[in-house]
Amino acid sequence: MDIQFAQRMSGVRVSAVREILKATEQPDVISFAGGLPAPELFPVDDVLAATERVLRETGAPALQYSTTEGFTPLREQFADISRARGIGCTADDILITTGSQQPLDLAGKLFIDAGDCILTESPTYLAALQAFRVYQARFVAVPTDELGLIPEALPALIERERPKFLYTIPNFQNPTGVTLSADRRRTLYAIAARYGLIVVEDDPYGALRYAGTHIPAIKSLDTEGIVIYNSTVSKTIAPGLRIGWTIAAPEIRRRMTIVKQATDIHTSTLDQRIVHRYLADFDSAAHIERIRASYGERFRIMDACLRETMPEGYVWTHPEGGMFLWVTCREGVNTQDLMPEAMASKVLFVPGRDFFTSDTGQRYMRLNFSNATPDQIRIGIGRLAAVCGSAAQPVAG
Ligand SMILES: Cc1ncc(COP(=O)(O)O)c(C=O)c1O
After folding, report:
1. 89 Cβ neighbours under 8 A, 6+ residues apart
2. Angle at 291 between CA 35 and CA 270, to 5 degrees
């Protein structure tokens, strides 16, 4: 059948990660591919108790339709959390969203006409590229170095490309794990303010710092109302809840609320109330501390195993938090070509290519260190190093 899809679907591709994740279902596979939190750290008993309280005490409103803006007591809790990250805000500034993925789609709906330029880090989160591609965005990469985005490169790009917004992940970036310094955040904001450039600041990982010191969000500098700040409970409670939030200037937030209403009316009332009860009644700070300690340990184990086993010519980032590190392979290696052997060796990673907006990135791979246990990390990195080692062998003859 010849189905006539909208023109905008022509640029939308199947996510490479989704395809690789299918392979994780095979037995004995050790996956560093997905962006999954450690399942054994989910606060199952506390979420169960919170759910029971919500349904017993407020069953009817928890199952009823509610406002698009979200459950006010939860908005108050997210305002408290955001203030602790340096962002001056109240509950009124918060829109509850379905994960922090949804505000990316809402920003796309609000700002992107076909062919509009969006500035991104390169590499960047591939599901953000997917979200913006639906609106036929044209991507332009901001130059980066090992410390992340180089803000001084922005003025020339802004003048030449007239971008609709800059999309950035300043904390423990996906995929590189790199964090933008306080100085670079200030420079970035000053340039954005000078040009009136909207900044979409995506911060799903900020709470997962296991080393170094906290750096205030770019949004904390936002005197002009140009920064849209997104966060989530996906990495601090559980991603299955699909609860996130966005903070934006009233003019932007009002429009986001209208387009969200057209998208899903509101985020699940029951899930919002469960998250609210969980945050109100249980020690979420102690829980996050456990996650941080565990991810810090897993990063250090992965780093040590990589140092012990990887062949010459491979280097990787040393993130201070989050869930990913980024490997640069020896010159000439194409990580896409390593996939069949990696799958046969029952170890998975994500090849770098899909995180780039241009046809580059063949030399890189993303490794997730939050989902596998320490023992699996030791075994899996051994397998990966063997795969990389065989790629490093000179071809006989
Ligand atoms: C950079 C980034 N933004 C947004 C998301 C979406 O997360 P969620 O919708 O679960 O909050 C993710 C998930 O991995 C991510 O890595």
Report:
1. 79, 82, 83, 247
2. 75
- Contact of 189 with 154, CB cutoff 8 Å: no
pTM, entire model: 0.95
| CA angle, residues 139, 144, 147, in degrees to nearest 5 | 140
Pocket test for ligand 1, best of 168, 234, 235, 267 (most atoms within 8 A of CB): 234
**Cα-atom radius of gyration of the chain, to the nearest Å?**
21
To test the ligand 1 pocket, which listed residue (36, 42, 125, 264) has its Cβ within 8 A of the most ligand atoms? 125
Decide whether any atom of ligand 1 lies within 6 Å of the 148 Cβ.
no
pLDDT digits 0-9 by tens, 207-233: 999 999 999 999 999 999 999 999 999
State how far the alpha carbon of 367 is from the alpha carbons of 298, 302, 374, in Å.
Answer: 12, 9, 14
β-partners of residue 149 are: 144
Question: Does any ligand 1 atom lie closer than 6 A to the CB of residue 335?
Answer: no
Q: How far apart are CA 51 and CA 135, in angstroms?
A: 37
363 to 18, 115, 330: CA distances (angstroms): 21, 29, 7
The half-sphere exposure of 64 on its side-chain side, counting CA atoms within 13 A, is 7
**C-beta of 78 in contact with ligand 1 (< 6 A):** no
| Beta carbons of 120 and 154 less than 8 angstroms apart | no
Residue 125 Cβ < 6 Å to ligand 1: yes
The pLDDT tens digits of the residues spanning 294-319 come to 999 999 999 999 999 999 999 999 99
